[in-house]
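Problem: given the chain below (225 residues), write out its structure.
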Amino acid sequence: MQATKIIKVNALTMGTSGLCETFAPNSVYVQCIRWKRKPIWLPPAKSKMFRVPERPVISIEEKLEIQRLYNNYKTYMTSFRSYLIQAAEKNEAQCKQVTSEQTEEEDFKMCSAINDQWNAEVAKNREIRLAKMREMKKEEILEKLMQQEQFKEEQMKKLNEYVKQVKRESVTFITAENIDSAIEECLANVVNHNRALDSEGNWHEGKYSPVRSVERTQKSTAVEQ
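Solution.
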């Protein structure tokens, strides 16, 4: 109990202080607990098990005074609520009497003017927004047109280059005019592909020589004639 008075904490927090050998009044001692008081499921202490609490004794005069004050309070509150209800009903009746067709017409005109003002603001904002959308749409269309033009130009360049290449290669084409000279050139310059190259770099010709093949072709043409 002395340690409890010094540190100024609950007795439950210092329940195990006597078990600690190193505890001193000037030392810092902290014990974490979950409840500040005894849990509800624990039974009562043995010293309080058979204790019967005494009921407070109120005198008759004090009881009558308390009853009188309570009745006065109820009366005052009831009258105050009734007064508020009557005042609200009176104000409502006065408002109904004051309200007339003229005031309703003025109110309608004022509301209509406010509505027209709001509509004008909304229309102005809408026009600005639509103008911005039109400008953005124009820019998108122009950008797409430019991209299409660039694509067409690139395609035309590719086609022109291809046509030029074909024209350059057309010189080597075999046509009806130069087919005879092409055949004579092929027969004069016969290439024998029937040969092989070994690892030492020597060429080994095939079984038939180019001369024999030329002679055979000449013989076949003579027989056909």
